[in-house]
Amino acid sequence: MPAKTDRQDRIMSRYQDDTRSYSISELAREFDITTRSIRFYEDQGLLTPAREGQNRIYSKQDRVRLRLTLRGKRLGFSLAEIRELFDLYDADKSSRTQLQTMVGLVTAKREALQQQMDDIRMVLLELDAAEQRCQQALRQLT
């Protein structure tokens, strides 16, 4: 029997990774979230695990989607926006539409954050002015 080459080992390893499944507790530990959060994402249509009786069996795709969901949330995207991107990817594997939508979402998110930063700067200026008026009034009282 001929020895396996490095290339064959890599192919087998990739195949095993593609077919690997995960339990809800494994994913919860890996991503440092609760199993309840994972079930919530499933209820929202972001994850679609297989079932074996009462047990959920998560695929590599579910794991990737969970990671993308958590990343999207950190970037400030709503679950509806994240689901829209998943739906676009499922419908168009070339991902052109998904990328165009993502660019639009990123632009809108950036504009919203910029507006929030401008608003915060304005409030800080107003607070500085109020503090100065209060300090001046205190000095006049003494």
Automatic annotation (TrEMBL):
Residues 110-140 form a coiled coil. It comes from Aeromonas cavernicola. InterPro entries: DNA-bd_dom_put_sf, MerR-type_HTH_dom, MerR_fam. Keywords: Coiled coil, DNA-binding. This is MerR family transcriptional regulator. PROSITE patterns: HTH_MERR_2. Residues 21-88 form the HTH merR-type domain. GO terms for molecular function: DNA binding; DNA-binding transcription factor activity. It comes from the Bacteria.
